[in-house]
Design a protein that fits this description.
The complex is a heterodimer of chains A (about 600) and B (about 300). In chain A, about 60% of the residues lie in helices and about 10% in strands. Chain A has about 600 residues and is of the alpha/beta class. In chain A, helix 2 packs across helix 11, helix 4 (about 85-125) runs antiparallel to helix 5 and helix 9 (about 200-235) runs antiparallel to helix 11 (about 260-290). Chain B has about 300 residues and is mostly helical. Chain B is about 80% helix and about 0% strand. Chain B has 13 helices and no strands. Chain B has helices spanning about 1-30, 35-40, 45-55, 60-75, 85-125, 125-140, 145-155, 175-205, 210-215, 220-260, 265-275, 280-305, 310. The chains are: A alpha/beta (about 600), B mainly alpha (about 300). Chains A and B meet through helix 6, helix 7, helix 9, helix 10 and helix 11 of A and helix 1, helix 6, helix 7, helix 8 and helix 9 of B. Chain B: It is a multi-pass membrane protein.
């Protein structure tokens, strides 16, 4: 159940704690769930404090005349239990016991968890690994059984039992605090230099205090519920000292379930009101920390659904395939819904074409929308993305109107993709070979697919294809992984290959080899290639034409040679200049040599 | 892989030794009147001294613990102070009841959590919200209330299943199932809430990763992406939560056995607690810790098997 207590990462707003505190308090006050649960908790505490005044009998006093007395009896207005005790006064006493149990258990676990979490997170190393080992050990214990087995030691006192429970629940708090301290400390390494004067410890405790406080309140609420439920559970089992408790009331009512089921109602109501308000408060507090409310989330969900529906209706009608180029994109826009339902457009009316056998570069800095454009063509944008276009077609077939199944059939033989970061684009749990074979199994039997993948691995320059075929991704190098991904992309003879910065993540020497490989494969298979890159060197090396993008717009389109000699747009000029500088700095010899060869 | 397993095994043995010695020293070390408890207030001091000697309670604690653990290794857990029944024999009579219930509960938890978690991750919407509600409900309503509610509904109002009692599977599998289905379902409710939420969370995280997009770009079906690739990679964190849920289910079985009057290890342990029957308490502790350590070890092996970096 610990995942419900998952901490939000270190909060950047920690820098303005006072402001954040006010914001959270305001958000809580506006949330009826939070207010309701706090009021319930306060009312129950008050009732239990006023018990001597508002009850007429001791919770342990039994009266023979009031055995199983019905609700509303004079002086026993919630009725009497099977031993003739006043249910009302027992209920109030039970609230007190539950609250005490919660306070002890929660207090102990928070103190232990925070102290050791701070030390382990701050000092690190040996202490951290020892503490983490011990707390993991505690986490793996059968808590309830150990509490019961140790009852002879605690002499049945529920307070001592709750103390033990607090110790056994402390690993959750420990983990939370430790991870957050480590997170804060990592961020502080950068800031620490700026803030001379203050000791790291001082900054750490101040930062950590504000960062950790919210998640700890949430976790404390959950721990309090666990304590209350365990206390009630043990009392239900009838082990431990004979104190009035929800558990013993439920146990009593359970034996009376056939005759007087109403007796079960009061302790259940009391217990659920208590734990329920704790949990609902924790949920509301979490929402307040995250700056969302359930209502707002629901609103935004509805808004997004509306937007997507509109887009779905609009898109197919707007598409009129002209079928001139192999890949035609005209006035492509991509937008994402904001939480309030309005649209945030990130790509604005981009147009490009790629003819068969042609290599087109899509150039721009990071954030210019080039990768978004590429993913839109592949149909691989996140679900919430709203894509509209006057035309987006491959081989005359409209892309945006396709069903997911049609799109899936298109991927592979129609359009294929080479990613930027090779290592994160292979499934770590499966062998390289099995991942590549999987895509081919749609069209050929397993043996043949395996044969084809082995051939391809050899073709992309992998020295020992058999071995790489059976390797897991973590066993091969980044350059090898990129060759594998290229093999995976061309395996299905795609008409269009979309390569997203295929060399950026690689060493300079490997970059040149991969570019050479791409050029060879493109000629061999007569593929059209859309090459997404920020590097004009790569463009000059491989491309026939180029589309320059900036801030989600296409600012210039043309032949590579023409753009290099007479860039029309200021931005293109600066891009070429800056990248030439970079080239000379890197002394990227193989690329420039290949460039001359290409012309 | 072998080294990894050995390390986990050693760590498991340490846990067993630490916990049993902790319980041993806490119980024997703090209670000075074991023999007096057994014989009752009317016994003479002489009788008490003789019993103390017979039980070996006059010897140093460390010696007693060493004796206990060496015979425990040989499967001898001593005899009950009060019934003189061997603890090991008593446990082997009672554990099948508990295990029937826990195993069925674990199976229900696994199947339901996978179904709910996968659906919630793939579809979102209603299933997702139902899952969140189950989570809150399982926290707010303690297992005893859920159990009593189910008994009231299914055994008393609807009369679909017997409300109490246990039928061994060897006598009648049908009646066996009828006798444990309600307890098992009750136990599973809490487990499903935690595990399904974890499966959903890990799956959603996995589905956002780069390699999933690349698999999609090759035309791999959504079914294979979700059921094969994402699930395989999400299984690690889910297994860790599963081992915690198992401990929770095993612990909660104490309540369930009481409510459904099942003759499992719970009533045995509870009696021993009330009486101060220490050999029984130690035996129950040992069995539960060994069980927990074994489950954790199995989960570790599964983790290692799932993760090629550990396996190869």
């Amino acid at each position: 159940m610990s995942q419900q207590l998952a901490p939000p990462g270190p909060d950047r707003t920690a820098a303005a704690p006072a402001k954040r505190k006010r914001r959270v308090t305001r958000a809580l006050l506006r949330n009826p769930m939070a207010v309701g649960s706090v009021v319930t908790l306060a009312a129950m505490t008050l009732l239990c404090l006023l018990a001597p005044v508002i009850t007429s009998h001791d919770p342990m006093y039994s009266s023979v005349e009031h055995v199983n007395a019905p609700t509303g009896t004079e002086g026993w207005w919630l009725g009497g239990d099977a031993q003739g005790r006043d249910m009302w006064s027992r209920l109030l006493a039970s609230i007190g016991v539950s609250l005490t149990a919660a306070l002890i258990g929660t207090g102990v676990s928070i103190v232990i968890g925070v102290v050791f979490g701070l030390i382990a997170g701050y000092v690190g190393r040996a202490i951290d690994s020892i503490a983490s080992w011990v707390f993991n050990l505690v986490l793996a214990l059968p808590t309830l059984l150990i509490l019961i087995v140790l009852l002879p030691v605690t002499r049945g006192s529920y307070q001592l039992t709750m103390l033990l429970l607090g110790v056994m629940l402390s690993p959750g708090v420990y983990r939370l605090v430790r991870n957050m301290v480590i997170g804060v400390r990592r961020e502080l390494y950068i800031d620490a230099a700026k803030v001379a004067g203050l000791s790291t410890w001082r900054i750490l405790t101040r930062h950590v205090f504000f960062v950790v406080r919210g998640p700890i309140v949430i976790q404390a609420a959950f721990i309090a519920t666990i304590c209350i439920n365990v206390q009630a559970g043990l009392a239900f089992l009838g082990v431990g000292a004979n104190t009035p408790s929800f558990g013993s009331m439920i146990s009593q009512a359970f034996t009376n379930l056939y005759g007087h089921p109403v007796q079960l109602l009061w302790p259940t109501l009391g217990l659920v009101a208590l734990t329920g308000s704790l949990i609902l408060f924790a949920n509301a507090y979490r929402d307040a920390l995250a700056g969302t409310t359930t209502a707002a989330r629901r609103r935004s969900r509805r808004a997004i659904a509306d937007v997507t529906r509109h887009a779905d209706e609009a898109a197919p009608a707007a598409e009129k395939p002209t079928g001139k180029a192999l890949l035609t994109v005209q006035d492509l826009s991509i937008a994402y819904p904001r939480p309030d339902g309005s649209l945030n457009e990130v790509v604005h009316k981009v147009s490009l074409t790629v003819d068969s056998g042609e290599v087109v570069g899509l150039v721009g800095e990071s954030g210019s929308g080039k990768t978004q454009t590429a993913f839109a063509i592949l149909g691989l944008l996140p679900h919430e993305a709203v894509v509209t276009a006057k035309e987006a077609s491959l081989d005359g077939r409209p892309l945006l109107a396709m069903t997911p199944a049609e799109l899936r059939k298109l991927r592979g033989p129609g359009v294929a993709y080479i990613p930027q970061e090779p290592m994160s684009n292979l499934d770590p749990s499966f062998t390289v070979g099995s991942q590549l074979v999987e895509a081919l199994r749609r069209t050929m039997p397993r043996v043949q697919a395996r044969q084809r993948v082995l051939e391809l691995l050899a073709r992309v320059g992998i020295p020992d294809p058999e071995r790489t075929f059976d390797s897991y991704p973590h066993q091969i190098s980044g350059g090898m992984a990129q060759r594998v991904l290229i093999a995976g992309a061309v395996a299905t003879h795609p008409k269009v290959l979309i390569a997203d910065e295929p060399t950026t993540a690689l060493d300079v020497t490997v970059q040149a080899e991969i570019l050479d490989l791409l050029r060879e494969l493109q000629r061999e298979l007569k593929m059209a290639v859309l090459l997404v890159t920020h590097n004009f060197g790569v463009v000059a090396d491989l491309c026939d034409r180029v589309v320059v993008m900036r801030d989600g717009r296409d600012v210039e389109t043309g032949e590579v040679r023409q753009i290099f000699s007479r860039p029309a747009h200021e931005y293109t000029k600066s891009l070429i200049d800056s990248i030439l500088d970079e080239e000379t700095l890197r002394t990227d010899a193989p690329v420039s040599k290949a460039k001359e060869g290409a012309r | 892989m072998i080294l990894f397993l050995l390390r986990r095994l050693v760590s498991g043995i340490i846990v067993i030794v630490v916990v049993t010695s902790l319980v041993f020293f806490l119980t024997y070390g703090t209670s000075i009147q074991i023999a007096r408890n057994i014989l009752g207030p009317s016994a003479s001091d002489e009788q008490v001294a003789i019993l103390n000697e017979n039980l070996g309670l006059d010897r140093p604690l460390f010696e007693q613990y060493f004796d206990w653990i060496t015979s425990a290794v040989h499967g001898d857990l001593g005899v009950s102070y009060f019934t003189s029944e061997p603890v090991a024999a008593a446990l082997s009579n009672r554990l099948p009841v508990t295990f029937s219930m826990v195993i069925v509960a674990v199976l229900i938890t696994l199947i339901a959590s996978l179904a709910l978690g996968i659906t919630a991750a793939a579809r979102g919407g209603v299933v997702d919200r139902v899952l969140q509600s189950i989570g809150t409900i399982s926290y707010v309503f303690p297992v005893i209330i859920i159990a009593i509610g189910l008994v009231y509904l299914f055994a008393i109002v609807l009369r679909w299943v017997p409300s109490i009692g246990f039928v061994p599977i060897t006598r009648s599998p049908g009646h066996w199932l009828a006798s444990i289905i309600l307890p098992s379902v009750t136990l599973a409710v809490g487990g499903i809430a935690g595990l399904a939420a974890q499966i959903r969370g890990s799956l959603v995280d996995e589905l956002g990763l780069d390699y999933i997009r690349t698999l999609r770009s090759r035309g791999v079906s959504e079914r294979a992406i979700l059921g094969k690739h994402a699930l395989r990679n999400a299984a690690g964190p889910a297994l860790t939560v599963f081992s915690l849920q198992f401990i929770g289910i095993f612990g909660a079985s104490l309540f369930i056995e009481r409510i459904f009057a099942l003759p499992g290890y719970g009533a045995y342990a509870m009696n021993a607690t009330v009486q101060g029957d220490f050999p029984v308490l130690l035996g129950v502790t040992l069995v539960s810790v060994v069980l927990v350590v074994t489950v954790n070890l199995i989960v570790d092996v599964a983790q290692g098997w799932l993760n090629p970096k550990v396996r190869t």
